User: Fold this.
Amino acid sequence: MGSNSVRREGDSLMVGLGETPPSTDLFAEDLFADRVVLVTGGGTGIGKAVALAFADHGADVAVVSRNMDHLTPVVEEIESRGGRAYATTVDVREYESVDTMTETVVEEFGGIDVLVNNAGANFLTPTELLTPNGWRAVVGTILDGTAYCTLSVGEHMIENDGGAIVSMGATNSVQGAPYHAHSGAGKAGVHNLMQTVASEWAVHDIRANTIAPGIIETEGVTEAAGGELPEEILQDIPAERFGTPADCVPTVLFLTSPAAAYVTGGYFAVDGGQLLASSPF
Ligand SMILES: CCCCCCCCCCC/C=C/C(=O)SCCNC(=O)CCNC(=O)[C@H](O)C(C)(C)COP(=O)(O)OP(=O)(O)OC[C@H]1O[C@@H](n2cnc3c(N)ncnc32)[C@H](O)[C@@H]1OP(=O)(O)O
Ligand SMILES: NC(=O)C1=CN([C@@H]2O[C@H](COP(=O)(O)OP(=O)(O)OC[C@H]3O[C@@H](n4cnc5c(N)ncnc54)[C@H](OP(=O)(O)O)[C@@H]3O)[C@@H](O)[C@H]2O)C=CC1
Assistant:
């Protein structure tokens, strides 16, 4: 096997449900050379892992979110590895802010080839206690934010030879679950929006797909779950572990690479089997 193979001595689960190898063991070093990638929420959690991975495969990477303190360390890390990165603040709930973000990134890097709609928000609450403001805080970020970034960056892609869009959905978008009224409805909207965009914009050489992470251990989800992820949930995850940001990276890279040239409008769960029904026996 070649030096890039994931088969290494001592691995017990070479292609099973063990740890996802680093993307540099899986994909060509120059897969995204000369490409510009924009990752919303790219300063923390899954977005950070994705942004660093794109840079490792040659992309110029723009990371954006509300808090520059989240973004600067990612830019510094990419630059320290010899890559090009740029950060600018945006509130994805505000269309004007999003449009300014698009213009700024295009000005900085000359275009945008890949958009990763990753910014998100969530908290768990019984539906009867959900306030209109609570609904807006979550749905505004997830659904309005994804729509605004898609519209703004999409306009640029339509004018400039196409591109690829990946949005972070969630398993709750196809399966309602207690305490997820706002998040589940917002993520279902994201999934549906990506399908519509995929069907309309194929003619512009734009692909759009949704990734549905299961439960991925990040500070964000831990906070959203109220401070800790209850271990009992593992009983419902066939992989018997929570996911990591690294588990999400290869699917994002695949879907935005030429390897997925015929893949659009899809929904890809990265959930260790969480969506499968538990055994009735
Ligand atoms: C049973 C265990 C289940 C385990 C976990 C399962 C998870 C499955 C995965 C689901 C899919 C999605 C996952 C994620 O998105 S994870 C990560 C995303 N990251 C985060 O969400 C970061 C953590 N959350 C926050 O930072 C904030 O809570 C939030 C962004 C959600 C809100 O912040 P914001 O500053 O925008 O808003 P405000 O604080 O001003 O509040 C606005 C209104 O929302 C109400 N609110 C806020 N938090 C809560 C809460 N915990 N419970 C109830 N209501 C809340 C707040 O009161 C405001 O409303 P009012 O003005 O009416 O009071
Ligand atoms: N972790 C999990 O189990 C799951 C996560 N997901 C989804 O994956 C994505 C990443 O989640 P995860 O890494 O866990 O969480 P994080 O909390 O680490 O990431 C959320 C990111 O979104 C940014 N963000 C939040 N609100 C806004 C806003 N209004 N404008 C711009 N940026 C914003 C935050 O940056 P800043 O604070 O600087 O604005 C932060 O970087 C989210 O879409 C989430 O819903 C889906 C299913 C499960």
Observations:
- Residues 28-270 form a domain with the Rossmann fold fold (CATH 3.40.50.720).
- The mean pLDDT is 94.
- The chain has one domain: 28-270.
- The longest strand covers residues 206-213.
